[in-house]
Design goal:
The complex is a heterodimer. By secondary structure, chain A is of the alpha/beta class. Chain A contains three helices and seven strands; from the N terminus they run H-E-E-H-E-H-E-E-E-E. A four-stranded mixed β-sheet of chain A has the order 4-7-6-5. In chain A, strands 1-2-3 form a three-stranded mixed β-sheet, covered by helices on one side. The N and C termini of chain A lie far apart (43 Å). In chain B, helix 1 packs across helix 7. The chains are: A alpha/beta, B mainly alpha.
């Protein structure tokens, strides 16, 4: 049996260069969907978790991860999907949030609370104060609960008048 | 194991049929925001369907995966409740159906996060985050349209009165549901029903709508495979490709 001549840290670094297919400025590591990396003999085992259960990007992400590691010489890559604990935007890195903002998407503004059993999330509350990613103004307004993907809502800025995506707390 | 298999089919089939119905509105929503919302809700439900049906197929152990269960079962083998096969109708009908479903879905998922079955706990914990958003949105719209113009209020009240007879099937536990409760897999019906009715009463009061009696006669049979003819049409469209070109893949 032979062993891979790479470290787990090295693999994490490489995965940090794999972009999310729908928001290419953020890596799959910064998004918090890579949960574990293990080296077993010649096999590199990467565990990922879906963002939303119907997220159509998961298959592309699996293929991108495999392709990136093969490009670095790891032939035997196994991708496993893990459901629990369920993904939360709290796992998004500070670098990831900054990259989103630079790209024109307002990052999640709050901690995602554990909603199970509390029933506090099922009635409408005041929409969170989201700063405009373009001009920084706090005067913004929710225009749609859903945006171009399940993970985003649509806002507009009342000062610079630009519409923008908001990455919801989840 | 058969009871649990059937129970998992019920969860998966409910999400699948409602998702398929919502997909028919993609590009036809009454407003762009609603169009996006309906398609995103449909996508969430489809993702949840995959988790339920994959587990069901594994538990059954006959080599049926999510696709075979979704595309190669006929209507009498579907275990979805009658509510989800009701027509999209007007937007008041679509929204009322959604709110009735979301309310039950939310409190059931909440109960299932404490299931004795680890895999079900995981699926429920994943789903409830999405379902919370669905319920908040549909409840908010019920209030806006109910407590809206005379016309919107009248349409909402009509939709509620007509759909109400499909709101009780989920609370009519049969031997499969009861077996799941006994094993600690599913939550007891009383707690779920009370929570649902309380939430509905609160939202309908805010919406100035009159909630029909929970003791009214409720239609039943979908969970046991006795459906209206509508499900056949829904499946005919959904399953056409796999029926005409068996095994077709991307």
């Amino acid at each position: 049996m032979t062993f891979l001549a790479v470290s787990v840290e090295q693999v994490w670094d490489w995965l940090g260069e794999v972009a999310d297919p729908e928001i290419p400025v953020i890596s799959v590591v910064d998004l918090g969907i890579v949960r574990d990396v293990r080296l077993e003999g010649e096999t590199c085992l990467v565990t990922i978790t879906p963002t939303y259960s119907g997220c159509p990007a998961m298959q592309v992400i699996s293929e991108s991860v495999s392709a990136a590691l093969r490009a670095h010489g790891i032939e035997d890559v196994r991708i496993e999907s893990r459901l629990s604990p369920a993904w939360t935007t709290d796992w998004m890195s500070a670098a990831g949030k900054a990259a989103l903002k630079g790209y024109g998407i307002a990052p999640p503004v709050q901690q995602a609370i554990d909603i199970s059993g509390l029933h506090s999330g099922i009635r409408r509350r005041a929409a969170p104060d989201v700063a405009c990613p373009h001009c920084g103004s706090p005067h913004t307004q929710l225009t749609s609960e859903f945006g171009s993907t399940p993970c985003k809502a649509l806002y507009k800025c009342l000062d610079c008048r630009e519409p923008f995506d908001y990455f919801k707390c989840h | 194991m058969d009871a649990k298999f059937q129970y998992l089919l019920r969860q998966g089939d409910n999400a699948l049929i409602l998702s398929q119905q919502l997909c028919q509105l993609v590009g036809k929503g009454p407003a762009l925001e609603e169009d996006m919302a309906l398609s995103n809700v449909a996508l969430d439900l489809l993702g949840q369907t995959r988790m339920w049906l994959t587990y069901a197929g594994e538990l059954e152990g006959k080599g049926r995966d999510e696709d075979r269960l979704a595309f190669l079962r006929d209507a009498h083998d579907y275990r979805s409740c009658l509510l989800v096969e009701q027509p999209n109708g007007s937007y008041a009908d679509t929204l009322t159906r959604q709110f009735l479903f979301d309310t039950w879905h939310y409190f059931l998922m909440d109960g299932l996060t404490r299931s004795s079955d680890e895999r079900i706990r995981e699926i429920a914990a994943k789903s409830i985050k999405e379902v919370t958003y669905h319920l908040r949105r549909s409840g908010d719209l019920v209030v806006r349209l109910g407590d809206g113009s005379d016309k919107s209020r009248a349409m909402m009240q009509t939709a509620l009165d007509e759909l109400w007879m499909y709101s009780g099937e989920m609370f009519l536990y049969d031997e499969i549901d009861n077996a799941m409760v006994e094993q600690g897999v599913a939550p007891p019906v009383d707690s779920i029903r009370t929570q649902c009715l309380d939430h509905m009463a609160e939202v309908f009061a805010d919406a100035t709508l009159t909630m029909p009696s929970p003791e009214a006669w409720m239609q039943r049979g979908g969970k046991q495979g006795r459906h209206s003819e509508r499900l056949g049409f829904i499946l005919a469209e959904m399953q056409f490709l796999q029926r005409a070109y068996p095994g077709a893949a991307w």
